[in-house]
Design a protein that fits this description.
The chain is an alpha/beta fold. Helix content is 43%, strand content 16%. The chain folds into two domains: 219 residues, Rossmann fold, CATH 3.40.50; 226 residues, Rossmann fold, CATH 3.40.50. The strands form two sheets. Strands 1, 2, 3, 4, 5, 6, 7 and 8 form an eight-stranded mixed beta sheet that branches. Helix 8 packs antiparallel against helix 17. It binds adenosine-5'-triphosphate. The site of adenosine-5'-triphosphate has 19 residues, from helix 7, strand 12, helix 11 and helix 15.
Length: 470
């Protein structure tokens, strides 16, 4: 993997590793370096030897706040106290973002923080990024930094804390306990810092995942050899203002998989698209994290059947326009052993691909059946999915009122969130068919029953290969 993440402290290393795993990026190495200039330079030299200057190096962890900012503000530039200025490769294009200053001492009190902010215009401070940035640039390597504010401008970070960190970044708990027993006045400050660190570090990890995905998308688009774990191309037409993602096992794809999304798109363009053009993006899954058994047909067969269904799925026999099959989940499963794919990862990857290809304006929506809406709270990071790609819900076997009822019964969603869900239900009618029923018919040799709900090309494909035969 062409990305290396460096975290000075153990707690940062833990939180960032966990979020990368969640994002399906467990193969990205995360290295614990210890704090301060010397430690970061030592670790960087070691990693550069291993990964070379073609990799992206990301420094991630907590930092001090010098002025009011977001928990994890995007960093536009890095400076030091001697006139050094560096720009991370993830700096926002529009000039937004804060200045991070790197120093070689601890900036402890509110007064010191304020004076440093006034003198330099920096909003956050740490003790590694200046040395890290200078060294990466010196060696011609791409670099980025993600920092979350763990001590705010109003807070005192006692210089003693430096002594609580071992050279390798681990915590000297006994020493901390002794210092705190000697100076109980430090306790409230430390409690505040630890509490905030626990809150912001997962956000730092999630941001590191986003930076890593954007880098992977970029290296792919620049025509370099696609990394194992890179993002598969998502070639939306130039006219697309929205992408409606539709995941499923499609084992096999049937008439509801083709006809209902087409109707949903029509409805979406009429009601939410503001004259935009939406593309349908089918995402065949390798294995549903919520289904015990995997698909019966192979990945290649399901992709082939889906393509056949889309190329002649209309009642008139014509192709479904502006629809594509995005094989990222399947491709990813072949190149990694990360286990089942989760929708939140897929949506993060889609967003990263679009952003990395100048399509940041493309809105993402996620199409699901009512059965899936009812158990959406069991999906991984459901609220993050909603942020990335707000669902559109097809009623399937229940009416809108009973969908809302089952969402309420889950006990997971607030009243406001349930209102939000009610607005996501799309009135496109129902088609009473399931892949399970199609497979059951095929198993007992009722080809003609199955054929009634399959595109002709799909029925042919199944017959030629003897799929689903009992
Ligand atoms: P299976 O019977 O094997 O569980 P399925 O027919 O539900 O399969 P999937 O590939 O799991 O098909 O479905 C993909 C998506 O399509 C899911 O969101 C599912 O809820 C939705 N879906 C499938 N069939 C219908 C249908 N008849 N009406 C509305 N939504 C459907």
């Amino acid at each position: 993997m062409n990305i290396v993440v460096l975290c000075p402290m153990q707690i940062e290393h833990k939180a960032v590793s966990r979020e990368l795993r969640r994002a399906g990026l467990s193969r990205v190495p995360v290295v614990q370096t210890g704090i301060g200039r010397e430690a970061i330079l030592r670790a960087l030299a070691r990693e550069m030897e291993r990964h070379g200057s073609g990799a992206l190096y990301v420094l991630a962890g907590a930092c001090g706040g010098l002025a009011a900012t977001a928990d994890v503000p995007p960093v536009a530039r890095v400076i030091d106290e001697h006139g050094g200025v560096w720009r991370p490769c993830s700096a926002p294009d529009d000039g937004a973002g804060v200045t991070l200053i790197g120093v070689d001492r601890i900036v402890a009190t509110p007064a010191e923080k304020q004076s440093l902010a006034e003198r330099t215009g920096a909003a956050i401070v740490d003790m590694e990024t200046h040395a890290f940035a200078a060294e990466c640039e010196h060696r011609g390597a791409a670099w980025s930094v993600v920092r979350g504010v763990s001590d705010t401008p109003e807070e005192t970070l006692p210089p003693e804390v430096l002594g609580w960190v071992r050279p390798d970044g681990g915590t000297r708990a006994v020493r901390a306990a002794i210092d705190l027993a000697r100076r109980p006045s430090l306790v409230p400050h430390i409690v505040g810092v630890v509490r905030r660190a626990n809150r912001v570090l997962p956000k730092v990890g999630a941001q590191v995942a986003a930076v890593a995905l954007a880098w992977m998308a970029r290296t792919t688009s620049e025509g370099k050899v696609q990394e194992r774990g890179g993002i598969s191309p998502l070639p939306l037409g130039a006219d697309a203002t929205a992408a409606i993602f539709f995941g499923g096992t499609f084992d096999p794809p049937h008439v509801a998989h083709v006809e209902l999304p087409r109707r949903v798109r029509e409805w979406y363009e009429a009601h939410c698209g503001a004259q935009g053009t939406a593309w349908l993006v089918y995402v065949p899954a390798t294995r549903s994290p919520l289904k015990e058994e995997g698909p019966i047909a192979s990945d290649a067969d399901r992709v082939a059947m889906l393509r056949a269904a889309l190329s002649e799925g209309r009642e008139s026999g014509g192709p479904i326009e502006r629809a594509l099959v995005w094989t990222d989940e399947i491709d990813r499963a072949t190149s990694s052993t990360d286990g089942p794919s989760f929708t939140v990862e897929t949506m993060e990857r889609a967003r990263a691909w679009l952003d990395g290809h100048g399509r940041a304006g493309v809105r993402m929506r996620l199409l699901i059946g009512a059965d899936q809406a009812a158990q959406f709270h069991r999906w991984r990071s459901p609220r993050r999915i909603i942020e990335l790609a707000e669902p559109l819900v097809m009623v399937r076997d229940r009416d809108a009122a009973s969908i809302v009822e089952s969402l309420r019964a889950s006990g997971f969603w607030s009243a406001a969130e349930i209102d939000g869900w009610a607005g996501r239900i799309v009135p496109v009618g129902t088609i009473d068919v399931s892949a399970t029923a199609v497979r059951a018919a095929l198993e007992v040799g009722q080809q003609e029953v199955a054929a009634r709900v399959l595109a002709p090309g799909v029925a042919r494909y199944i017959a030629e290969r003897g799929l689903y035969a009992g």
